[in-house]
């Protein structure tokens, strides 16, 4: 069974969860069911993944089969950034809860720090292709999200893709009621984020690592891009432990006390990715993996670099 990261609320967040971005609606239901049967208790969801309804069906079936109770599960979802207006924050959360068929979320994250103009378009642009941003900021959204906690719809709040200045803005917000419990960010041996992780941990904020296998199914992948799963040095470490490169990439985070959410819709891989509690990387192997850092990011919306709340202009 997975171990946990303790949140500042004292809740226990399973250190290993299932990612669901790019998991198509016709595959994600089976994936979540396989994962729950295998022992996963943490599922990472988001409105923008457009599959929360099917994730919810899987969760419901497993609850009805009495494989798990709701309180055994740890369900995370995310507020998309076209919903930063007061009324929309609440509507978005209720829509996610309805789709997931849940009464509450364990953590609700702000998906991305930059607010975008409200409307049907999730990436709104003008005729010239310029991004259209909202006047509401993540601080405005945070205030409404705090009400979701008070209303019992959400147990805790978090952020995603925030740099440390942006987290600091939340922590220093006058009248702050609830601190973020986690910052979900891209992290792997090519992007090791020492400073950001140290900062978050020093503030009692856990870090959750995404695209930790290198997100090989990302739509913009190019053959010339580096591949974590094919890296000969990572393969060598894996062979030494009779494990797969994916298992090493997952274990790497667990040993840094970083929560990790590998995505798969393949039953054998979902099982494989959970078999990471029966081996340990040595201090030397951890140092070797950290030495592969090249600050290489997979998820970079480069056309947003000039926007006020773009997170990657800061050092960390
Ligand atoms: N907050 C954010 O902005 C943000 C951004 C990106 C991701 N995320 C979250 O983080 C999760 C993980 O990130 P990700 O989806 O980008 O990528 P990832 O987990 O790094 O990689 C997923 C890919 O790896 C393959 N895979 C999984 N296990 C494998 C194994 N054992 N061996 C070989 N290949 C394997 C999957 O294939 P199959 O599925 O075909 O098996 C899929 O193609 C997402 O699903 C999402 O929940 C959040």
TrEMBL record:
CDD domains the record matches: AKR_AKR1B1-19
Statement: the UniProt record of this protein carries the keyword Lipoprotein: no
Residue ranges of every copy of the NADP-dependent oxidoreductase domain listed in the record: 16-291
Pfam family, one: Aldo_ket_red
Binding site for substrate: 111
Keyword list, A-Z: NADP, Oxidoreductase
Catalytic activity from the UniProt record: an alditol + NADP(+) = an aldose + NADPH + H(+)
Protein's UniProt keywords contain Nucleotidyltransferase: no
UniProt site (Lowers pKa of active site Tyr): 78
UniProt-listed Enzyme Commission number(s): 1.1.1.21
Enzyme class of the recorded protein, top EC level: oxidoreductase
Active site, per annotation: 49 (proton donor)
Similarity comment text for this entry: Belongs to the aldo/keto reductase family.
Subunit structure: Monomer.
UniProt protein name: aldose reductase
Species name: Marmota marmota marmota
